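Entry 14. Ran structure prediction on the chain below.
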Amino acid sequence: MIAWATLDAAIKAQVIACSPVTDVRWAWEPNAWAKPVRIRLKRSPIGVVGLDARVRAYDADDDALYAYQVGARTFGLEIRCESIRGAPSDSAPVDCADVLSVLITRLRRPSVTAALATGGCSVSSISGIARTTYEVEEREYGLAVVTVNMLAADVDLDTSAMDANDTVGADDIIEIATGTLTGTTPDDADHVVVWSTAE
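Output, structure tokens:
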């Protein structure tokens, strides 16, 4: 499975490192206006990229062979910058789009991509920045949003262990494929070979 706790911590730490704004939180964290300018993070559900692979690994400690299903996943990271209009002053208000432009530029730094990779994810692409304003109880707020498409690995352990001498996993349909390959010999005769992915 995707290690969301590790990924979430790595993503938040790097957004904080890249952002000129100190108030950075996930959408599910306490949401009071602690600062006049803030950043909120939200991630979308995962999407599957390509085909998953089936791999097996031997564990010498318990003398068992385990099956894993591994594959690439993608998800969107929505980064929202909000500000109270006129903050920090009417003469020099913060433009949320400017804040996000600095942030997404810094996300491409080698040190940041290395830290994200250590956390188990990477940046795939970055959307354009959208911005608007809105009012709540006669107070005007600025808002800018950018979506960063992220990649991560999904590793799912088959819960049933196999004996060390067994080449067939719990899911035979995925683990083993068989078939025939027909070729032509120099004398124009058919030559049929039976093949299998089983060891």
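The radius of gyration is 25 Å. Will compare against last week's run tomorrow.
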